[in-house]
Write a structure and sequence with these properties.
403 residues; mainly beta; Immunoglobulin-like; 5-stranded mixed sheet; 5-stranded antiparallel sheet; 24 strands; globular; disordered N terminus; binds ligand MTE; binds molybdenum atom
Length: 403
């Protein structure tokens, strides 16, 4: 799965020249997550079932972030390095695959109770899709916001195989007055709290892309990523990607549950942007993802050899449209240069980008990366802001010192 094994010879991209930026300017773009030793020194844990080294945000309920090196050089994120996020600590630790049932009910002609054996016999769909937490990169928001202080690693991409939600809804027969589809999983709320349930508008649920997945990168789902089945909502933030899915309920009225009505809402403004301190703005449930690009083989503060070209690469995503281009700048965004892209795995997948930066004299440089999708959406500076730290789409930067 190493796209770079197919790497073609690259020309030097036209970066540099007037690209020298003084340290104080680029330093403003660098935000430290405020942990001892800086971003690179966050604690790493390897003791979680099915997981390798992960950045430990919280042990219970688990919040495990993917280190950038696990995202480097490949578009599909290995299952054992895929990030983990649960809200409630009572999560499934084992599932009896023979007695497990996915129940489908509510506004349907007939209720269904589907075994895993039944599910595996149904027609399959397959899609490459990025799973990204709404709060990915929240730790980079400024002014700072409360919540899990994710760096850029609350994201992963996988090849998913499963059964389309439309197929299951057709088997149950959706009632004419249905408007939405609510899903829930095996994790349990503490007394008095609402179960973690999310819903999609009926047309979205029936678009043929939303699926109940039982396979992730050719293997069964890791327990912590929702074994035995989870919802996949291509192009949408992962709050909708309900794990350990055990119930689907067709609703004849909009979902007014806590996790749709109160949580995971964004300002109803372009880019979900509000002024820090703003209150009482209208909100909508978070929904489609937007373009992003990341550096994966080089981090802020990297040292490179002066007067020698150096190779940089990373990943880009388009959100709900394909990655159209990834551009780099070394003059603070005055000029942009297209980076060559790796193979296309579909519009919901990561796409690899790479570049060779021409030799630079000794000094400190800022490199910016920006993705634009086929619908013309792109990344911005200054960064947008909202009090939940959702939907970051700032142009990402790293500072590099050539010496
Ligand atoms: N059952 C269940 N599904 C869930 C959640 C949860 O708490 N319970 N969290 C959601 C959120 S907010 C995220 S970011 C993703 C994380 O998916 P992952 O752990 O597979 O990376 O799961 C989603 N699905
Ligand atoms: Mo999330």
């Amino acid at each position: 799965m190493d796209d770079l094994s197919r790497r073609r010879a690259l020309g030097l991209i036209g970066l540099g020249g007037a690209g020298l930026v003084s340290a104080p300017v680029w330093a403003q773009g660098m935000i430290d997550l405020g942990l001892p030793g800086g971003n690179a020194a966050r604690s790493v844990a390897s003791g979680f079932p099915g997981k390798g080294d992960m950045i430990l945000q919280r042990a219970r309920a688990p919040l495990l972030e993917t280190p950038m090196d696990a995202l480097d050089g490949q578009v599909f994120t290995p299952n054992e390095r895929f990030f983990v996020r649960w809200h409630y600590s009572d999560i499934p630790t084992s599932v009896d695959v023979r007695s497990f049932r996915l129940n489908i009910g509510g506004a349907v002609r007939r209720r269904l109770s589907v075994s895993l054996a039944d599910l595996l016999k149904m027609p399959r769909v397959e899609i490459a899709a990025i799973n990204q937490c709404s709060g990915n990169s929240r730790g980079l928001f400024f002014p700072r916001v409360p919540g899990a202080q994710w760096g850029n690693g609350a994201i992963g991409n996988a090849q998913w195989v499963g059964v389309s939600l439309r197929h299951l809804l057709d088997l149950a027969g959706v009632a004419p007055n249905a408007v939405a589809v609510r899903v829930g999983g095996l994790d349990k709320p503490p007394p008095g709290a609402a179960p973690f349930e999310k819903s999609l508008a009926l047309d979205h649920a029936r678009d043929g892309e939303v699926m109940v997945a039982f396979q992730m990168n050719g293997a069964q789902l890791p327990m912590l990523n929702g074994f035995p089945i989870r919802l996949i909502v291509p192009g949408w933030y992962s709050t909708y990607w309900v794990k350990a899915l055990d119930r689907i309920e067709v609703l004849d009225a909009p979902d007014t549950g806590y996790w749709m009505d109160k949580a995971y809402r964004i300002p109803d403004t372009p880019g979900a942007n509000v002024m820090p301190g703003a209150k009482d703005f209208p909100t909508v449930p978070i929904n489609r993802m937007i373009p992003r690009a990341f550096f994966t083989n080089i981090a802020n503060g990297a040292k490179v050899v002066a007067r020698s070209p150096f190779y940089i690469r990373g990943l880009a995503m388009g959100g709900t449209s394909a990655v159209a281009r990834v551009d780099l700048s070394m003059d603070g965004g005055r000029s942009w240069h297209a980076a060559p892209l790796g193979p296309d795995h579909g519009k919901y997948s990561f796409r690899l980008w790479e570049a060779t930066v021409p030799a630079q004299p000794p000094g400190t440089y800022r490199i910016d990366v920006r993705c634009t999708n086929a619908a013309g959406q792109t990344q911005v500076r200054p960064a947008t802001w909202n009090p939940s730290g959702f939907m970051r789409n700032a142009i990402e930067s790293i500072g590099v010192t050539a010496a």
